[in-house]
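ugh ok so i messed up the first submission bc i forgot one of the chains. this is the corrected input, ALL of the components this time, i swear. 920 residues overall. if the numbers dont match what u have on ur side tell me asap before i send this to the collaborators (the ones from the other lab, u know who)
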Amino acid sequence: MSVRAGIVVTGTEVLNGIIRDSNGPWLSERLREIGVDASHIVVVGDRPEDLLAALRFLAAESVALIVTSGGLGPTADDLTGEVVARFQERPLELDEALFGRIAEILRPLLSRWPDLDREAVLRSNRKQALVPAGATVLEPVGTAPGLVVPPAAGDGAGPTVLVLPGPPRELQPMWRAALETGAFQAAVVGAGTFEWRIMRLFGIPESEIAETLLVAERDGLALDPLEITTCLRRGEIEIATRYAPTDAAAYAAFEAYVARRHGPLLFSTDGATIDAQVASLLLGEAGAGGVGDAAGARPARTVATAESCTGGLLAGRLTDRAGSSAYVLGGLVVYSNAAKVALAGVSSELLERVGAVSSEVAEALADGAIARLGSDVGVGITGVAGPGGGTPEKPVGLVWVSVALRDGPRLTRRLSLPGNRADIRDRTTTVALHMLRRLLIEADAPPPGEAAPGAGSDAA
Amino acid sequence: MSVRAGIVVTGTEVLNGIIRDSNGPWLSERLREIGVDASHIVVVGDRPEDLLAALRFLAAESVALIVTSGGLGPTADDLTGEVVARFQERPLELDEALFGRIAEILRPLLSRWPDLDREAVLRSNRKQALVPAGATVLEPVGTAPGLVVPPAAGDGAGPTVLVLPGPPRELQPMWRAALETGAFQAAVVGAGTFEWRIMRLFGIPESEIAETLLVAERDGLALDPLEITTCLRRGEIEIATRYAPTDAAAYAAFEAYVARRHGPLLFSTDGATIDAQVASLLLGEAGAGGVGDAAGARPARTVATAESCTGGLLAGRLTDRAGSSAYVLGGLVVYSNAAKVALAGVSSELLERVGAVSSEVAEALADGAIARLGSDVGVGITGVAGPGGGTPEKPVGLVWVSVALRDGPRLTRRLSLPGNRADIRDRTTTVALHMLRRLLIEADAPPPGEAAPGAGSDAA
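and heres the new structure output, hopefully the right one now
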């Protein structure tokens, strides 16, 4: 039996469906990476008895570790620390030094709001410095510290509880800090170490991957030692595989099988996302494009966008990455037809003749982005995101995307996307990134008949 | 004590964070509508012992009802019906008529795939017609029927279990069918109906609301009948309150207290988000701005953006809403300085003199958006989103936002935002929307000394 853990997500808003929880799934994935299986994820409201009941339930299921998220704020309904102390039978003690550090964190906040009652704020934040006796404190990322609280009777006598704050931007770094603590490591002793690899494919349905797994076994591949999970995420297929280090050969054979069967649809074997690949390609990094990218050193290039139905989401996605100012010059959000003419230089005659949602206008937008921003690469997007505005000829979900190199080749594609407005807009940005990747890889590919630079061929 | 229910979501992929569950929150909201409180949502994998443990845990918590989702398919790992039968101590019996109806549903499917082994398919679907003795069958929406399974010893002797399929498009209509059954109604007898109201505030920390609740009680407000939860969401405070209809006066007093204490920081008392309020204000709807908006009919206005550090996220957020083409003309993503000059008409001399991150450039961007897109309102954003690029004078988190009416008043604000790159970018869009709201409300406010239109004053 492997080491198991339970996850408790607290918060009445989460329980009531007002806030969508992302911590439970995130923690479950992280646990799996360190060889620990989640037994249950339990969502509870801000009622102490319900939280205590959840902790006792998981303890009865013999988990070695319970991870809680949320309930560490300064308000009265934030009571996770208190309940966990009770559960582990460890009295709460004020950690004066910690309280001082929290006050220090609050200082800039308090100076920003001069009208606040400084004493009242510190009073409510004081409870964040109450620590169960014998617990390990994880330094605050926001104002709330986390805790690793061992069982009353010591290691192995019941689950250790890792107490983390609710906001993902606090929880995620604190999880990584928790991994380093002795108290955490003592709790998960015996968890195996596993390798964890991710392949990404774009352009096939998930059922096709189910078929691949069936056929691979029929072809004699040893998939048993591999724990393979597949999922569809933002329009891409992710194949995540966990295996013992001794089964590396089985994984290598599986990866080679997928590469053979799906060819260019497999775009990443090192887990790199399409966002990361496009960024590396624009920066001119060698081998940036992942699978199928034969280029060595390549020129760095700048990019600009002209978006209609995505309304700035592609520019927003490109600039999500730190350092993107090195290759993103900017973009045009041309939601109205007037803006397409005035900003992107699309001709009114063309709009009149073929309509805003057309290959011609997508190409004119890509060219307009290059011309107006002086970039090396341009992306033009125009489509019907719905829910209104569809016609029989141009239904909701019809989107044209064009990516072009200045004075160079271009790719233009007609998409028919399923889903609601948000799905259509998001999926369009994913497709645009894949088209950008292909354009950039092909632009830098060695001419046919020539070996890839660095491939060591002497036949060129 | 109100009537309580537990929710069990089954599926290894959900537990492992690969598939995002939407059924738990959806069921929780539906339960609340009928006056039933969810006590816990438990996610379990496809292991029968873990599912049984979850059912027993919830029964021990004295819930009147357990709703399960998933595990009703034809494959071997679908075992919810079987486990629930065991839990309620009711033997499974083949419902021949139901099996016939399932075969009928499968007929068109089988004829579309002539290669399928008809017998094999029916064999695996046969288990879907196995019904615990005494259970009420809910007709299939897909191929899986749902079940309402009373406790072994009859009504009230333990929880009734409502068994629903996993796909939301099957689960949701089947939930509505379940509400009509006598077995379901018997389980939730005594559930009350509740009111549910949301207030939103912007510009104060969550600890300040904790203080408000304390002070309100000290001032003699009856908060006991109100179930109040507060949370911080995208930089805004949300106060969600549930109460019995007979306690409406207590809620009204609480709302008035919050309005008095926090004044203009309380921007919504009807749950409307800042996104919805800005959309309504731009559309010219009366009373669109929520609390403090005295205007009646107002002019409709168009908006355009010029964004540097947010890189299109504000335009993306404005166009998230269906129908936004009525008021969003477009935007400029001016990530590079060259783009600020070429696209938004910011002077190079100004950039040289005060730097890109400055009030002057934010204002020039707002004006440039208005000028280039011909809009009534412009938003300019420039800042340091990090992680690099900060200096002692202009640290990471420093952002300037300016909102302006064409030839009219403007608001310009310096922000010092905490958090990482994504937080800073997201928070900036929230602040920009609040500034837009304020500008639009003030633009349409009746001149001082004049009563608001429709206020019925005869003194004007």
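quick check: The first helix of chain A runs from residue 12 to 15. that seems consistent at least. The radius of gyration of chain A is 27 Å.
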